[in-house]
Design goal:
With 282 residues, this protein is α+β, with helices and mostly antiparallel strands. Helices cover 46% and strands 18% of the residues. It has 3 domains: 6-104 and 185-205, Alpha-Beta Plaits, CATH 3.30.70.1730; 119-181, Molybdopterin biosynthesis moea protein, domain 2 (Alpha-Beta Complex), CATH 3.90.105; 211-280, no CATH class.
C-alpha cells in the first residue's frame, strides 16, 4: 500500500478491523438511495449492524488484505456493485437479509432505472375512461377492453424483464396505474460467513414454501416408516394402537371372550337381537 496515502490507509485499516471483529460481512449496493434514506436505514439497523461506505478501490484493498485472516473474504469483491458499501453484523446471514428486506419500501419507476425483477401489470379494472389511454397501454404490450364504461386490462403482462432498462413510456404508464415496482432500501448483494459466500438468490428464502416442504418431507418419511415398520417412537405408538384395535376386532368377530371384548360382543349381540325383533315384528 505504498501508493496509498495516510488518510486512505486509515480508512482501509478501519474496514479491516471491522472485518476482523465481525463474523458476518456483507456487500451492499446503495445506488439510488438519497442521504435521508440512508440515515433512516442506519437508524433502524443501528442495534444490529454497522454500515460503512468508501471508494470501491479501498474496499478491494481492505478485502484482499484480510484474505489470510479470513479465507475467501476477497471473493466479496465480485459483489461490490453500483455504489458499494459494507455491512458488519453478528446476526445470521438469513436473518440479516430478512431484516433488510423488511425495512424496504416501494417506489414508482423512473426512466432509465434497471428493473430489479420482472415488472408485471395484473389484469383488472382501471379508473380510466376510454380514450388515448388505450393506445398508451397498448404501446407497452397491455391488452385492454372496456368494462362498465372503463378501460380494463384483460391479461397479466410482463412489461419489463429483470435487468432491463425501464423506458420513459413504461414508467409513465406504470405511474398512471399506481404500480410501484421499485424498492427503496439497502440492496444486500452477498454475505460472507466462515469461508462461504451467500449471494442474495440463496439468502432470499420463501419461509412459507420452506416450511411447507419440511412438513411434506415429514409426512412422506412418516408414511414410509409406518409402512415398513421402522421402529421409531411415533411409528411404534401408532402400531401398538393399530394392533390393539385389530386384536379387539378379531376377538369380537371370533367370539373370544375376555374382559375387553365381552362388552362389545354383548353390545353387538343386542344390536343383532334388536334387528331380528324388528324384522319378525316381535
Amino acid at each position: 500500500m505504498a501508493h496509498v496515502n495516510e488518510q486512505k490507509k486509515k480508512i482501509i485499516k478501519e474496514f479491516q478491523d471491522l472485518i476482523k471483529n465481525y463474523p458476518i460481512i456483507g456487500a451492499v449496493n446503495m445506488q439510488g438511495l438519497a442521504t435521508p434514506q440512508v440515515q433512516r436505514m442506519r437508524a433502524k439497523l443501528r442495534d444490529t449492524v454497522v454500515i460503512k461506505m468508501t471508494k470501491r478501490r479501498l474496499l478491494n484493498i481492505a478485502l484482499e488484505g484480510m484474505e489470510k485472516d479470513k479465507k475467501g473474504i476477497s471473493k466479496l469483491k465480485d459483489y461490490l456493485q453500483g455504489m458499494p458499501a459494507m455491512i458488519f453484523t453478528k446476526d445470521n446471514p438469513f436473518i440479516l437479509f430478512k431484516t433488510i428486506q423488511k425495512n424496504k419500501s416501494t417506489a414508482r419507476a423512473k426512466a432509465g432505472q434497471i428493473a430489479p425483477s420482472d415488472i408485471k401489470v395484473k389484469a383488472g379494472a382501471t379508473s380510466f375512461a376510454p380514450g388515448p389511454v388505450i393506445s398508451e397501454f397498448g404501446s407497452i404490450g397491455l391488452k385492454t377492453g372496456i368494462e362498465n364504461g372503463k378501460v380494463a386490462i384483460k391479461a397479466d403482462a410482463v412489461v419489463v424483464k429483470e435487468g432491463n432498462e425501464i423506458s420513459a413510456k413504461v414508467a409513465e404508464v406504470l405511474g398512471k396505474l399506481g404500480v410501484e415496482p421499485m424498492e427503496i432500501g439497502l440492496d444486500l448483494t452477498a454475505v460472507y460467513e466462515d469461508g462461504s459466500i451467500f449471494d442474495k438468490n440463496v439468502l432470499a428464502i420463501d419461509e412459507k414454501e420452506y416450511f411447507d416442504q419440511i412438513s411434506l418431507a415429514h409426512k412422506y418419511a412418516f408414511n414410509l416408516a409406518f409402512e415398513t415398520d421402522f421402529p421409531v417412537r411415533e411409528v411404534v405408538e401408532l402400531k401398538i394402537v393399530k394392533a390393539a384395535n385389530e386384536s379387539m376386532n378379531l376377538a369380537v368377530e371370533a367370539g373370544i371372550y375376555n374382559q375387553d371384548s365381552v362388552e362389545r360382543i354383548l353390545s353387538m349381540a343386542q344390536c343383532q337381537a334388536m334387528g331380528l325383533k324388528s324384522t319378525v315384528n316381535v
